[in-house]
């Protein structure tokens, strides 16, 4: 992308667009601030077993994903800002509860609610981006920038969590609650500029949730994309859980150094190469971008399947290839969904697409089963096959167009 074109597109981003982008950054950073370290707090303060912690965290994540499917339709029916306000209010209450809870049951309820702001914010904020930017290229840039900021938030979140969640001061969660309060004030200020968007949206006839489900069942192309994306997320999810399990069981030398290096490699490649890749692929169709990312994903899984377990640089190379696939696919999946969704059902479609995140939720379970029953090679070959199946499903969706 040329610098002048980039500057021109950025100049057309309204204050509301920037509020949505920075809000997504903050919501994601807050989520990752909590998620990696809750298990430690639950063990140290409440003495929960590993199984009990796993049930609580997995259950809250699945609940949040399923909630997002419903709230996307609510955002189309009752307005984007209604759900955005709900997200920040829940965030304020949840993180305040995490800071103050002394009983296990209140802390567990707070954990469930702490997973909700991300879900409540995601679909309506993406829909608002689409509503605000009439030019398709501007929307595409905004969604790429959204993914970039989400990754920065995911990187910064655990660093803040290390300070706020693991230094023995549970009360530090109150700082996140205060930050959500600041985000609430920003929404109040920017809502006036969004009123036209809300009124225009209200002029369209938005179906009830039941009617929306009937529409969804008939949209075969979108269902193929959902299933393909679920498989893609299932494959990527192995890198966060099963790969670490595999390396740990294999007693790889300098395991901590290797895992840290893999995380840094992933973050650096996505942050550095996302926009250069956007420039290279600017004239490609969205399907071609997804096919390219899918084939790179297959290559990464085959590299992992046949890499000698003690080969440090082999794992770095495999994760680097995986990261290039991620940089290509994740933002373009959002763009694909934006193009498929009718203007009055943007949030509903983005909310339904959130179901694909169940791929991340079930990745540790499937990966653990494959590691127990087979080996690392079995796991990664199975993921390569799943990636190939995803490409096939994306092709089916393109043919259904």
TrEMBL record:
<dbReference type="InterPro" id="IPR020846">
    <property type="entry name" value="MFS_dom"/>
</dbReference>
<feature type="transmembrane region" description="Helical">
    <location>
        <begin position="141"/>
        <end position="166"/>
    </location>
</feature>
<feature type="transmembrane region" description="Helical">
    <location>
        <begin position="349"/>
        <end position="371"/>
    </location>
</feature>
<dbReference type="InterPro" id="IPR050171">
    <property type="entry name" value="MFS_Transporters"/>
</dbReference>
<feature type="transmembrane region" description="Helical">
    <location>
        <begin position="12"/>
        <end position="34"/>
    </location>
</feature>
<feature type="transmembrane region" description="Helical">
    <location>
        <begin position="104"/>
        <end position="121"/>
    </location>
</feature>
<feature type="transmembrane region" description="Helical">
    <location>
        <begin position="172"/>
        <end position="189"/>
    </location>
</feature>
<keyword id="KW-1003">Cell membrane</keyword>
<feature type="transmembrane region" description="Helical">
    <location>
        <begin position="46"/>
        <end position="69"/>
    </location>
</feature>
<keyword id="KW-1133">Transmembrane helix</keyword>
<keyword id="KW-0812">Transmembrane</keyword>
<dbReference type="InterPro" id="IPR036259">
    <property type="entry name" value="MFS_trans_sf"/>
</dbReference>
<feature type="domain" description="Major facilitator superfamily (MFS) profile">
    <location>
        <begin position="16"/>
        <end position="401"/>
    </location>
</feature>
<feature type="transmembrane region" description="Helical">
    <location>
        <begin position="290"/>
        <end position="306"/>
    </location>
</feature>
<keyword id="KW-0472">Membrane</keyword>
<feature type="transmembrane region" description="Helical">
    <location>
        <begin position="81"/>
        <end position="98"/>
    </location>
</feature>
<feature type="transmembrane region" description="Helical">
    <location>
        <begin position="377"/>
        <end position="397"/>
    </location>
</feature>
<dbReference type="InterPro" id="IPR011701">
    <property type="entry name" value="MFS"/>
</dbReference>
<keyword id="KW-0813">Transport</keyword>
<dbReference type="Pfam" id="PF07690">
    <property type="entry name" value="MFS_1"/>
</dbReference>
<feature type="transmembrane region" description="Helical">
    <location>
        <begin position="312"/>
        <end position="337"/>
    </location>
</feature>
<protein>
    <submittedName>
        <fullName>MFS transporter</fullName>
    </submittedName>
</protein>
<feature type="transmembrane region" description="Helical">
    <location>
        <begin position="255"/>
        <end position="278"/>
    </location>
</feature>
<feature type="transmembrane region" description="Helical">
    <location>
        <begin position="222"/>
        <end position="239"/>
    </location>
</feature>
